[in-house]
Amino acid sequence: MNAQSANSQLMATAAKPPGLLQQVGMAGSAAVITVSFIHPIDVIKTRIQISAEYGKLGMFGTASRVVGNEGVLALWKGVNAAWLREASYTSLRLGLYEPCKVAFGCTTPETTTFLKKFAAGSAAGALGSLAGNPFDVLKTKMMASEGGQASIMKTGSELLKNQGIGGFYRGIDSNIARAMVLNGTKMAVYDQAKGYVVAVSGWERKSLLTTFFSAVCAGFFMTCTVSPFDMIRTRLMNQPSDAKIYNNAVDCMVKIATQEGPLTFWRGFLPIWSRFAPTTTLQLVIFEQLRALMGMESL
Questions:
Q1: CA max distance for the chain
Q2: How far apart are CA 126 and CA 128, in angstroms?
Q3: How far apart are alpha carbons 99 and 112 in whole angstroms?
Q4: 160: how many CB neighbours lie within 10 A of its CB?
């Protein structure tokens, strides 16, 4: 009798869905694993965005120059800062999406609209951005530095010495805007696309194929909406401390549009998409598999 009772208790515990911290932890794990493979594309994208010279070389030309001048390991510059960023920023923006959906009233299929999904994704993205901005600044500076490998401690110390605590929150306005658009697009399109994929293909919502095609779709639309914000954020975070070029996100946007042309906002579209497509797909596939292991339903 005691054995039966113990088994019942064990089954009940196993069936209980994980809490908020577990969801955030699963999201962070998926993000850290993913960024370890995708980081070189982020380095190339950053170099293209901050330099017209790299922009002319294109994605493959930039990769060739970086490897030729700085070595293969230069493609992983700032990866330690990227791990910290993903563990803080992405863990929250991905892990908080479902709780935010509930908070916005997405409790039944009838009340779950695309706009509410976008709002939930945007809210989760904003919260994640507040936590991850310091590591985002460090990562951007380390990826943009040419020459030898930059230490995260040295980069952080120099930033603190030259700009104070505020330096770690440089570009916070554009970063929050970017995170809201990025995560709102990512999660809303992914969530919505799953419904279409299931309807057209007949696959289950939790199917790996459903997750894959929905994530690829989300990655493309993310690139379209986020590229301008990504350009502004990169410029603000990478401007030198002794020569302020842009006063804020709006000033940066106006100067880029008037001095370099509106299409500059989409400079590096290919490397951004090349990063978003595999990043989004891997993150969501790993996250969904972890959810399944923890007894949770698919998003």
A1: 79
A2: 5
A3: 13
A4: 13
Number of C-beta neighbours around residue 116 at 10 A: 17
Output the average pLDDT for the chain.
Answer: 86
One-letter amino acid at 181 equals: V
Q: Is the pLDDT of residue 16 over 60?
A: no
Q: Which of 129, 165, 18, 147 is nearest to 71 (CA)?
A: 147
The pLDDT of residue 11 is above 70: no
Q: Chain centroid to CA 108: how far?
A: 28
Task: Please choose, from the candidates 137, 148, 153, 160, the residue with its C-alpha nearest in 3D space to the C-alpha of residue 74.
Answer: 148
Secondary structure class of 266 (helix, strand, coil): helix
Residues 177 and 174: their CA atoms lie apart, in Å, by 5
Q: What is the pLDDT of residue 147?
A: 72
**Dist CA 226 CA 232 (whole Å):** 10
- Name which of 218, 143, 132 is nearest 175 in CA terms: 132
Dist CA 267 CA 264 (whole Å):
5
Closest to 131 in 3D by CA, of 24, 44, 206: 24
The band of 212, judged by pLDDT with boundaries at 50, 70 and 90, is: very high
Please say if the pLDDT value at position 65 is more than 80: yes
Q: Any idea what DSSP says for residue 109?
A: T
- Cα–Cα distance for residue pair 92/198, rounded to 1 Å: 27
According to the model, what pLDDT value does residue 17 have? 52
